[in-house]
Amino acid sequence: MAKITAIDIVNMKNKGEIITMLTAYDYVISSILDEAETDILLVGDTMGMVVYGHSTTLPVTLEESIRHTQAVARGAKSSMVVGDMPFGTFQVSKEESIKNAIKLVKIGRAEAIKLEGGIERIDSIKGILDAGIPVMGHLGLTPQSYHKFGGFKVQGRTEEEGNFLIEEAKALEETGIFSLVLEAIPWEVAKQITESISIPTIGIGAGPHCDGQVLVTYDMLGYFDFKAKFVKRYVNLKEQILNAVSKYNKEVRTGVFPDLSYSYEKPKK
Ligand code: KIV
């Protein structure tokens, strides 16, 4: 199958096709998600929490994002690979934002980048787009604003906040971004945004009316004990891994594994 591009993603909205996106941080998961025909693999800065064990996404570095994007790119034959711009890589200046986005594409092999924020990011977004890099926006509960929001809190709940989100979505669309993540906002606001812009919205905790959906893969596979309201677990991998590893430990300790069928033998004379 041919590689999915930013143009294909925009066309999916025009054709009424729903977009699927999942996070990936390594080669093996990337290959599996690709084989399952996931449209977009996001090398999200959630890696800071699920891979590196931080309590927020804030400590993720550009080098980490690049390294994981490289691994994901090797596994993605047809899924589109989007690299996430970590905190601090696009807030300082337009020039720095462009340089860092170029690194994610040139060294990391991302095919587009995602960055969080609204009207305050328009200059940087325009610069990155001018460099020929497709940009995915991200509004609502933008986790890099954890301290500003006072935690991971649903956004856009008041009339005023909802209207401001709609305004920001329109302003981002005007820059030329190819898609927009909407995270943890009331479904009514997400629906209104989806209906008022021509680029696809991809929701996470934003209800069923977005043009696509994204989840953190570790969440939907049940690796974690914590489960946000919007996460559907499609399998409980933590339980399955616990069972498998406990069985392995028991069999090794009791000499059941390995028996001779798992062992090499000398050549027969
Ligand atoms: O970093 C990430 O994984 C994300 C998704 C939750 C959209 O931004």
Summary, kept brief:
This protein is α/β, with parallel strands linked by helices. The chain is 42% helix and 13% strand.
What's the layout of helices and strands?
Blueprint: H1 6-15, E1 19-23, H2 27-35, E2 40-43, H3 47-50, H4 62-75, E3 80-84, H5 94-106, E4 112-114, H6 122-130, E5 135-140, H7 146-149, H8 159-175, E6 179-183, H9 187-196, E7 201-204, E8 212-215, H10 217-220, H11 237-254
Helix pairs in contact: 2-4, 4-5, 5-6, 8-9
Descriptive report:
- The protein has eleven helices and eight strands.
- The N and C termini lie far apart (50 Å).
- The chain has a single domain, classed as Phosphoenolpyruvate-binding domains (TIM Barrel).
- The protein is globular and about 75 Å long.
- With 269 residues, the protein is of the alpha/beta class.
- Helix content is 42%, strand content 13%.
- The chain has an eight-stranded parallel barrel with strand order 1-2-3-4-5-6-7-8, surrounded by seven helices.
- The structure holds 3-methyl-2-oxobutanoic acid.
Helix content: 40-55%
The CATH architecture comes to: Alpha-Beta Barrel
H/E element string? HEHEHHEHEHEHHEHEEHH
- Give Rg in angstroms: 21 Å
Q: Termini, distance in Å?
A: 50 Å
Largest sheet: 8 strands, parallel, barrel
Which cofactor or ligand species appear? 3-methyl-2-oxobutanoic acid
Portion in beta strands: 5-15%
Structural class label: alpha/beta
In order across it, which strands form the biggest sheet? Answer: 1-2-3-4-5-6-7-8
CATH superfamily caption: Phosphoenolpyruvate-binding domains
